[in-house]
Amino acid sequence: MTIHLDHTIVPSRHKVASAKLLAELLGVPWSATGIGPFAPVFVNEGLTLDFMDTDEGFPVYHFCFRVSQQEFDAILARIQAAGISYRSTVRGPDDMRVSDFMGGSGIYWNQPDGHQWEMLTVSYARP
Question: What SS3 class is residue 23?
Fold first, then answer.
């Protein structure tokens, strides 16, 4: 049996705004309402990020999206057009630079709730 991650909950202070922003940046569909208390972002045919409002404290999560170079360029253009700061390293200042680690392109940015998003074209997690 092949195992696939189907969905995960992303805690948020403003689920609709957070879901809408991520979906618009990635260029994927989303909904202000979903099953239960969620605002889902349909990342691809097999993965949904379910944003959920909470007043409780929550850790900062890291999500990494592997995309083609063409998708990377389009998403980066939307990030830049939205005036969102980004960086070339996982930690450090927003240097508005693209990493070329492992021969691909990569950036990191943070969502208003603090969650960290990463986008890359070549995975360093898998050979």
Answer: helix
pLDDT at position 120: 96
Burial of 44: CB neighbours in 10 Å, binned 0-12, 13-18, 19+: exposed
pLDDT tier, 127 (very low <50, low <70, confident <90, very high otherwise): low
| CA within 13 Å, CB half, 59 | 3
* Measured distance CA(11)–CA(85) in Å, rounded: 21
Residues across the chain: 127
Cβ-Cβ contacts under 8 Å for 127 (sequence gap 6 or more)? none
Can you tell me the distance from the alpha carbon of 51 to that of 8, in angstroms, rounded to the nearest whole number? 9
pTM beyond 0.90: the answer is: yes
The three-class DSSP label of residue 12 is strand
